[in-house]
Write a structure and sequence with these properties.
The complex is a heterodimer of chains A (449) and B (129).
Chain A lengths: L7 H30 L10 H32 L6 H23 L14 H9 L1 H11 L8 H19 L6 H4 L2 H35 L8 H16 L12 H12 L1 H10 L1 H10 L4 H24 L1 H7 L3 H26 L9 H37 L4 H7 L1 H38 L1
Helix pairs in contact in A: 1-2, 1-3, 1-18, 2-3, 2-5, 2-8, 2-15, 3-4, 3-5, 6-8, 6-9, 8-9, 8-15, 11-13, 13-15, 15-16, 16-18
Chain B lengths: L1 H24 L12 H12 L7 E2 L2 E2 L16 H11 L11 H17 L1 H4 L7
Antiparallel strand pairs in B: 1-2
The chains are: A mainly alpha (449), B mainly alpha (129).
């Protein structure tokens, strides 16, 4: 029987908050999809200029907050004692709740900072950084990590926290004239900060996935192996240096591009390892298929495979020249945030909510399994539609077709991604209702005990 | 200790690389006589205040609902006249933001400056790519 800790309650509250971000973010994504399809849809009252930043803010918040909630739950279990500052966990929850309401209100009212990903006014960026402080204090004060012996997920979580602060701060350097006054520097540093920020949340989420994997298999060895650390350091090098493949087209110094090209190509080792381990992965997946958390980890494996191939292709300068600025980049972003990050975070939530582990949840477990399958199929169509729209743009650019005509010719792909987006929303809504009910149930059980 | 050495080395390399990027990697390389003057600076502010990046890209940063604007200014198919018309009236998907004439001038100055720096866009293989 799993021991319950006092910090499980704020952990669940934070996870419920993250789920609400995802649901709202998906809804806004669907609205955005319809705005692609129907040019007049909410054009004046709630234009894409507002729906997109809200969608982006909410889905990014889902990713970060989902990882944070998981950390609050896992910390006492890894340390074998209660967290150092339980009040801090609640403080984190309330701070984040208030800040996100304020940010959404700003974006809804059309008050923007106007930067990609972080489109809210800069002052809220400071508040976001502040909201992470209780988590950082709890992480280090609870674990007091001794890195020489620590398993790889503790390295991964620590790196994620450290680089979130570094990259988030870096993304606001544009407020200084030295950066803002030079478009090449401003754009390069923005790509650098955002590219590495993606790496920071990947570190948080991959750490969680490795921890869950250890708990499910009961085998501690893989997370302490030389191979696990080799891939962790490879991932870290990519976090630090591979962002440059976004800047092939920016007139920065050529060595920036060369370095990132070579680093990006190291992802071939990861791809090679996936192919090498393929049979073993399938066997393990079959063994643990009844566990929904494990099934989600397996779905994530599939998406890692697809997106890694895409990432490697678009990192090759000759291919990047064509794919840059097309929906192929969006396919990569959606494949990683929805296919990999969301799948892993859902695995974490299912693990915490104990969905698929005990009989009271059996019916819901069956439903969750079906809905997850629908979600993955819809996501595959969504991904293919984005690739299709990207290839359409490449072809139209080559033939010098004007933008409005290109949008008309891309309409079938927009239809497909909007329809599959509706299915993604519907399937995830069902999955998340099951997750919310299970999280709330477990919460009541803790209160009762 | 090996893990800590590897981490420290990578982190030191990252810090050094970051400084290099800030100092020498991002010097303006465009041979342009168009400066980022006060009008262009104001244009950039307006571009951000109205969140134009939601639909338009500059150097690949931004959304895809509208066209990429990096080299629109010198694009013979589009150019300043068409850009000005969109800013004044909106378009099929673009709302009319009711910009003042001064605001439109500033945005145009900013996009003119961006266009002038975009040498790698106009000749993508100049830098060896």
């Amino acid at each position: 029987m799993d021991t319950e800790f006092a910090s499980d309650r704020p952990a669940r509250a934070i996870l419920l908050l993250s789920i609400s971000y995802l649901l709202l973010g998906l809804l806004l994504g669907v609205i955005g999809g319809f705005q692609y399809l129907l040019p007049d849809f909410l054009k004046e009252s709630f234009s894409f200029q507002r729906s997109r930043p809200l969608h982006v803010y909410l889905v990014l918040s889902w990713i970060f907050t989902g990882a944070q909630g998981g950390l609050y739950y896992y910390l006492p279990r890894v340390a074998g004692k209660k967290i150092a500052w339980p009040t801090g966990a609640w403080m984190h929850f309330y701070l984040q709740l208030v800040i996100s309401v304020l940010i959404m209100a700003q974006l809804f009212m059309g008050k923007f900072g106007g930067r990609e990903y972080l489109e809210f006014p800069p002052i809220y960026g400071v508040l976001v950084l502040l909201s992470w402080v209780p988590l950082v204090i709890n992480f280090f004060a609870t674990l007091k990590p001794r890195y020489q012996e620590a398993p790889v997920y503790i390295w991964s979580w620590s790196t994620g926290l450290l680089f979130f602060y570094i990259t988030y701060a870096e993304s606001y350097l544009w407020l200084i004239d030295y950066f803002n006054g030079n478009i090449v520097r401003d754009t390069t540093v923005q790509w650098k900060a955002l590219g590495s920020m993606v790496g920071s949340w990947n570190m948080l989420i991959y750490g969680t996935a490795m921890y869950i994997m250890e708990k499910i298999s009961g085998n501690q060895k893989p997370n302490r192996s030389a191979l696990a650390f080799s891939f962790y350091f490879l991932g870290m090098a990519n976090l630090m240096f591979n962002w440059g493949h976004h800047t092939y087209i920016v007139p920065a110094a050529p060595w920036v591009k060369t370095i990132s090209y070579f680093i990006s190509m190291t992802e071939l080792f990861i791809l090679g390892n996936i192919i090498w381990q393929w049979k073993k992965t399938i066997q393990k997946a079959q063994l643990h298929y009844h566990l929904l958390s494990y099934r989600l980890l397996s779905y994530a494996d599939f998406w890692i495979f697809l997106n890694l191939i895409l990432a490697i292709i678009i990192s090759v300068p000759a291919a990047n020249y064509y794919t840059h600025g097309t929906h192929i980049t969006v396919a990569h972003a959606m494949g990683t945030t929805m296919g990999i990050n969301t799948m892993l975070l859902l695995a974490s939530i299912f693990y915490i909510a104990k969905i698929g582990e005990s009989s009271p949840h059996k019916r819901s477990e069956k439903w969750a399994g079906v809905l997850l399958l629908i979600f993955n199929i819809a996501l595959l169509f969504f991904w293919i539609a984005l690739l299709g729209a990207g290839f359409q743009k490449i072809s139209n650019r080559a033939n010098q077709v004007v933008f409005a005509e290109m949008m008309n010719q891309s309409a079938p792909y927009f239809k497909l991604f909007t329809i599959s987006g509706v299915f993604i929303f519907g399937a995830l809504l069902g999955v998340l209702i099951i997750a919310i009910r299970s999280l709330a149930k477990t919460k009541k059980q803790i209160s009762a005990s | 200790m090996l893990k800590i050495y590897v981490f420290s080395t990578l982190f030191a390399a990252y810090s050094f690389y970051t400084v290099l990027i800030y100092l020498t990697g991002t010097k303006e390389t465009a041979p342009t006589n168009i400066s980022f003057d006060s009008k262009a600076q104001e244009g950039k502010k307006i571009y951000q205040q109205y969140n134009c990046a939601s639909c338009h890209q500059l150097y690949g940063l931004g959304g895809y609902l509208g066209p990429e604007l990096t080299t629109d200014y010198s694009n013979p198919e589009r150019g300043p006249l068409l850009m000005r018309a969109f800013l004044e009236n909106g378009g099929q998907r673009m709302p009319n933001f009711h910009f003042s004439k001064e605001q439109i001038d500033c945005i145009m100055s900013y996009l003119r400056y961006v266009d002038a720096t975009a040498v790698s866009y106009k000749n993508p293989y100049r830098n060896g790519y």
